[in-house]
Design goal:
The chain is of the alpha+beta class and 227 residues long. The protein contains 13 helices and five strands. Strand 3 and strand 4 form a beta hairpin.
């Protein structure tokens, strides 16, 4: 049984939903409901048939578990987005965002899904970038990707450099150090988190890091040698 995400918003209640079915399964039969998510993704949620609705539809009760939790999160994210975006229409997300007002973009940077975040993190309007990073739905993978974007606003990069849970990940830490857009004071403060051999490599790096960061790494190595 297949069901678009949009069709679940009004019908889902108490962990269940009315879904279409080409073949009418028996009541109490165990079935898999395939949910179509934005971006051509799918999520399969196990369920049990609790009644027939007629005309090719059945009422199902979703089985508690990880899949149901993921569905609930997808619904929460999607219902926030539908106020601004048509995720299933013919106009792609980038074009819809381009036609938004600045106020709508700022709002959407904080509440939007991954497709919107991908676009807004690269928008020329710098005020959007920190809202994208603060978006509750952002993933570690995205943080790693966005921390390497040279056009990300210095304010957003500075904020990210202060987030302990993100800079614990080596790829984020190194991206911020190497990113020419990261404010020099933020990049230099991150050097202290590296082991001495890594700092020595940065001190010898030519052209890949800014001179201020390279000099700071050299000073740290020299000061360590005098101790």
């Amino acid at each position: 049984m297949r069901q678009p995400l949009t069709a679940l918003v009004d019908s889902m209640a108490a962990g269940g939903a009315l879904v279409p079915a080409r073949e009418m399964p028996a009541i109490f039969a165990e079935v898999d409901v395939v949910i179509h998510l934005p971006g051509d993704a799918q999520l399969t949620v196990p369920a049990r048939v609790v009644n027939h609705a007629g005309e090719g539809g059945v009422y199902v009760q979703f089985t508690p578990g990880r899949s149901l939790t993921m569905l609930e999160r997808a619904l929460q994210e999607a219902t926030r987005e539908w106020g601004l975006l048509d995720l299933f229409g013919d106009v792609n997300v980038a074009e819809q965002i381009r036609d938004m007002t600045l106020r709508e973009k700022i709002e959407h940077a904080y509440i939007g899904g991954r497709e919107a975040r991908e676009v807004l993190a690269r928008d020329m309007e710098k005020r959007l970038h920190i809202e994208v990073l603060k978006n509750p739905g952002i993933t570690d993978e995205e943080i790693g990707e966005y921390s390497a974007i040279a056009t990300l606003s210095p304010g957003a990069l500075k904020w990210l450099a202060r987030q302990a849970r993100h800079i614990r990940r080596r790829n984020v830490l190194m991206n911020l150090l190497m990113n020419p857009g990261t404010p020099a004071d933020s990049a230099i403060s991150l050097l202290k988190r590296l082991p001495r051999p890594e700092i020595a490599r940065i001190a010898k790096t030519s052209g890949r890091v800014r001179e201020a960061v390279s000099r700071a790494a050299q000073r740290m190595i020299e000061e360590g040698s005098r101790r």
